[in-house]
Amino acid sequence: MSAKPIAIFYEHPDWFKPLFAELDSRSIDYEKIHLNGHFFDPCVDAFPYSLVVNRVSAYPSTASAPQVVLYVKQYLVYLEGIGTPVINGWRSYEVGTSKALQMQIFSKLGLNSPKSRVIHHAAQAVDAAEKLQFPLLIKPNVGGSGAGITLFKTREELARSVDAGEIDLGIDRVALIQEYLKPKDDCIYRVEVLNDAFLYAIRLPVLAENFNYCPADGCNIDRFDYCPVGGSSGGDTDSGASGITAFVPELEVIEKVRQAVAAAGADIGGVEYLINAADDQLYFYDINPLSNFVANATQVVGFDPVPRFVDFIMRQVLA
Hints:
- It contains nine helices and 14 strands.
- The protein is of the alpha+beta class.
- The protein has a six-stranded antiparallel beta sheet. Strands 2-1-3-4 form a four-stranded parallel beta sheet. Strands 5-8-6-7 form a four-stranded antiparallel beta sheet.
């Protein structure tokens, strides 16, 4: 093993405590690099770590300023430029911070995704929606946990919101106008991949006009009711008290997710999709390269994914 320690680059105060605990339990030499207060010298080639594990969300918590998204991109480019191995490096972070890029990935892979238009000013919203079907969503290009997503049921409602200056395009002032698809079974699905292989999948009930489907600790997971039994694209395996339910997707779905995560350049990541009530087809709408893991994982999916993630980290160190 390298004499240099591993670095865990992170920002959220709660999501990575299980990761730190697993590393500690194995007496692995690592250091925590918290995003807040971090800075670097872009002209220094020597780096004190054998590997950097990027665990910074593409959408910062309330503890961080929005501009850290752009800062993280610079830091990851720097690390890769000096030859430092990075788990979920610049490409995966870039995809995580661009819903527009995610739609492009789905299109290139031949996967269904909601019809969308990309705008850079709120005044464009009504014209951009001209050939789309209502209801529509406005999604900030940089977003997570449903942040900033707004539902508009009619063109008139959208126009009023534009005129009133109520539309927030988010951190980079870019947003998607996207058709809202009603899930057939009132559920959305998230499939997680680690090292190009299926890790687990969960089903989350749709919340009325609420788009925060973060399944991790600190994400108010107790608000979920249960999905209807038998409504998934695969068989049930287990369920948790929160109403988040594990299932096994069909092999074709797993392959589609695996391809999307690979196209995002992510070593670990999750993809979300729904079954559209209008045509019974799967529609993919989100790639999340962070994979903070579902809360109460042992109860919900039947095992703790953190040790498997640490196994993967250590294989990269030894490679």
